[in-house]
Amino acid sequence: MTLTRSLEQVGASVRRMIEFLGGTATMAGRAVVAIFTPPWDFRALAYQIEALGLKSVGIASVTALAVGMVMGVQFAFGLMRFGSVMYVGKVVSIAIVRELGPVLTALMVGGRIGSGMAAELGSMRVTEQLDAIRSMGADPIRKLVAPRVLATLIILPLLTILADVLAVLGSMFIICLEHSDVTPAFYINSVFETIRMSDVISGTGKTFFFAMFIAIIGCYQGFSAEGGTEGVGNATTRTVVVTSTSILVSDFFLTKLFMAF
Amino acid sequence: METFIRFIDIWKAFGPKRIYDGLNLDIVRGETITIIGGSGTGKSVLLKLLIGLLTPNRGKIFFDGREVTGSRESDLRAVRQRIAMLFQSAALFDSLSVGDNVAYPILERDPKVARGELKVRVAEKLALVDLAGSEQLKPAELSGGMRKRVGLARALAMEPDVILYDEPTTGLDPINTMRVNQLIVALNEKLHVTSIVVTHDMESAYYVSDRIAMLAHRQIVAVGTVREIRESTNPDVQRFIRGGA
Fold it and tell me: Which of A13, A48, A192, B83 fits a disulfide with A151 by CB distance 3.0 to 4.6 angstroms?
């Protein structure tokens, strides 16, 4: 009896997982087709870039500055043991540009905009607004999902570049303040000597994948919300959990992938 | 009398919950037919099946001689542009003003419509539901009755052949209920559309209907004119219209 119940639960979990993977893959495919085929709704795209992008500048900037300063302090503390404080700029910048900038920006911005998408679209779903769009002969994927996916694909790489710059400046500020032998000019110079275009491409390239995960998971969870306000709340929570996990797990594979090129 | 919409041997279930076991119903062009039945009997499901928001497990649905069941989403869009639906909650888009809500289906059908013409058409539809001049209001500023009427104006903006009303008077006070009922009748006379009304409000059903169909035991158990339904000997019909247990 217990074994049967356990098997049923495993079966249900596997079914839900397959439904989720199939549903998100189908939605992603349809969204990409809608992005590349007319008619295009530039007004909706501009609105989403403002709502998702401009309003995320604050959170991305504060996170980047704080992480940059902490990294500066920690690496200076560690490297001081080997008398190598002058290498802080090199180590911090490569860690930020290749890894921390993209991942932390995706996690912070993704949490904000992914949950926002799930909540907004989930509310539309439970109040029959998505059905209303379909009933008027319109395609909710083209109307609602495509502008959000495209806007996220545009803004996340840009926010990541901004975060990279601010994090490096944050670490520079704290190092130059605490160690008089490291000047801003020396610091900046060591950063430019270290960072190669391949580092920027590897770091920023990953954000296109993260953007796709954030937008598709947020929209899918919103479209699947059921059961009134409680369902919307669950969809929002699931979005944050699934998006964060997807970013962190995929980061390893994407890092290996970009290293291969 | 020409059959405009046909439901043939419709079976529908949500998981273990069976909704229809071989439901049949014919709807004539230009009539107002009301579907009555208890809560949870699947009245609204019938409307959603017609426009392809849901699909039956078995059976066929025909609209104007064309089979709807099994159609692709792209083919359904053509059907949906001829059928407008007033949702139970009105389903207005919260982020858009009243005017933009009503303009939505017009722009969907003709994205290049001139701004002036669009404005005129929106004003015309709002006037039809006694809400002239409310273009700038947001849905959050509207009362329940006003929301339903804006929903109706948006449905009319599609210039449909068929209007589906899902519980149009639920949650409204008696004055607004009568107002919506009068609108349904007046629009039918003026625009000669086919109307399918889903309700459990018998006063409304008597007021707006040419025919009434009773849904019970997962099937249509009785169909007839208002008089025929009032005088029906079917125990399900009598129990429902008299409010008995």
Answer: A48
